[in-house]
Amino acid sequence: MRTATTVEAAQNATWDETLDFVVGAEKLGLDICWVAEAWGSDAPSALGYLAARTDRILLGSGIIQIGTRTPVSIAMTALTLARLSGGRFLLGLGSSGPQVIEGLHGLPFAAPVTRMRETIEVVRQAFAGEKISYSGSQVKIPRPGGEARPMRLALPANPDIPIYIASMSPKMLELTGQVADGWLGTSFVPEGSGAYFGPLDRGLVASGRTRNDLDVCQGAEVAFLDDEDAVAAHVAARKKELAFSLGGMGSASTNFYNDAYSRQGWARVAAAIHRRWQAGDRDGATALVTDEMVLGTTLIGTAQMVSERLRVWRDAGVDTVRLYPAGDTLDQRLTTLGRAIELVHALG
User: Fold this and answer.
1) What's the angle, vertex CA 155, arms to CA 142 and CA 36, rounded to 5?
2) Using the 8-state DSSP alphabet, how is residue 54 labeled?
3) How far apart are CA 155 and CA 132, in angstroms?
4) What does the alpha-carbon distance between residue 342 and residue 339 come to, in Å, rounded to a whole number?
């Protein structure tokens, strides 16, 4: 397996601390650093700076929100970052959700699967150096009825930039299998991974590909604890975060995280957590989160537990493990990350 991490520039730390973490991760041998974009810093600005301060590590947008930019703008950004980084850029795309796209950006969260497909088709035209001409249900270039004619970008073609899709719903997962080079997943339970791999494999078959043609990149917190009591305390501290994901992420009617947990065997408890959170009962929602729900989607435990769990992830089909190292300080996070990288390498 390859190793990766995700940072959100200056979200919970100063920019200098974020930079030091990424530079330190590169020295530890980390393969990929993804830069998140939610409702804080944008990803491309941070990626350009990181490209100038690193030498080897791959840098990816994890993710660029397709609803907030035109497809050609996304292509221009990707081509620019690929040149700035010396070919180290990975384009990660995601649809986000209605709370961010409609609530923050004031744009319709309409037909996200279709918009993703059409966006990627236009992006690949731009990557290939072609004149950009497209007529879809969500994307029309040039604008119909105007005076414009198809244009090509004034940048060198680069059709080899890998495209990843962050997907959780069955339809978006199937599209990922059809058109993407990699899958950015989350809320992953190896024992319930058929909920993800079923749609992914249908998409791969439809496009005449196999799992070897898709980089399966899954993420989880990693934390090393000394004993069972420490593990229990750490798990308990993470339950409110998971309750927020299941109850507060998205809108009252749309929550992709809740849907993902439901499809992997926790439908009843996930629904109850959502109801309580939406009703304002945060403590009640948190109390419903079980230890198994936290441990099933993370790499938390003693060194032996983490090592065994990494082996399960690998055997389930994960190609790249995205590590979110626990720790209160930069040194602690890098130490945790280094231990995790060593365990991954030891798996062979």
Assistant:
1) 85
2) -
3) 13
4) 5
Query: What distance in Å separates the CA atoms of residue 74 and residue 126, rounded to the nearest whole number?
Result: 10
**Domains defined for the chain, CATH in brackets:** 2-221+302-346 (3.20.20.30), 226-301 (no CATH)
C-alpha 94/C-alpha 62 separation (Å) is: 8
pLDDT at 97: 84
User: Quick count: other Cβ atoms within 10 Å of Cβ 140?
Assistant: 13
Backbone torsions φ then ψ of 340, nearest 5 degrees: -65, -40
Structure tokens at 42: 């944008």
Q: What is the mean pLDDT of the chain?
A: 94
- Residues in the chain with pLDDT values less than 70: 9-13
Q: Which two tokens stand for residue 59?
A: 């840098």
Residue 323 vs residues 206, 217, 330: alpha-carbon distances, Å: 31, 10, 15
Q: What is the pLDDT of residue 121?
A: 98
Are 279 and 315 in contact by the 8 Å Cβ rule? The answer is no
pLDDT of residue 100: 85
pLDDT of residue 98: 81
- Identity of residue 113: V
Which amino acid would we find at residue 40? G
- Say how far apart CA 308 and CA 257 lie, in whole Å: 25
Residue with tokens 């791969």, as numbered in its chain: 204
